[in-house]
Amino acid sequence: MRKHLLTLLFCFFWIGFPLVSKQNPKSIPPTTYRVMKGDSWYGIARKMKVSPDALAKLNGRTITENLYENEKLRIPGSKESITLSADTKVKERFAYPLHPKEKVQKKFSELTYDPYKGIQFRRGNSSLVRASASGKVVHADYMDGYENFVILEHENGLYSVYGNLERIQVTEGQQVKTKDRLGILAKDKGLYFQINQNKSILNPELVLERGAE
Predict the structure, then answer these.
(1) Which residues contact 180 (CB under 8 A, 6 or more apart)?
(2) Which of 40, 147, 151, 164 is the most exposed place for a label (fewest CB within 10 A)?
(3) What domains lie within the chain, and their CATH numbers?
């Protein structure tokens, strides 16, 4: 169990929590496209023969966000592999760890040259951090750059991590239910939130939006 936990922590904290994919040296760097008046995500994607979602994800955006004239977009090369999220079945609905909900300040990214394997919420009025799903506290500790953090283990090999806490209010081995208190958020940082399923990395925003599948 100790060895498994150390392996898990290494995965979470490799380059500051995010898990970094191995870069393929043969990958072709993304090309670029200058947005023109009247362009849309779907139109550009069709023109460049790529998926609209992949195009938006590559640029750290979503297809619901507006494009701006003369904006430069990165376009996936023919050998560039962009994974939007791991294919998983999440049986339990994950709740937002902050109430009221805060906007996402930094989004999830699996890009080899700019990975970010979780999301960071904006620091707003929310200070109480709650469990996103029921589970067991498998680790609670401190790490430079991410303050105090808590890792929960859920069913089906799922783990969630909560970073940038000023104070932890749970102990290792404790069983928690959805929305139970985990700690108090640091005054000057937004919550860092990550979800893994075994060694697969999930997009926390998609898990929170989709809920149970």
Answers:
(1) 130, 131, 170
(2) 40
(3) 2-21+86-210 (2.70.70.10), 31-75 (3.10.350.10)
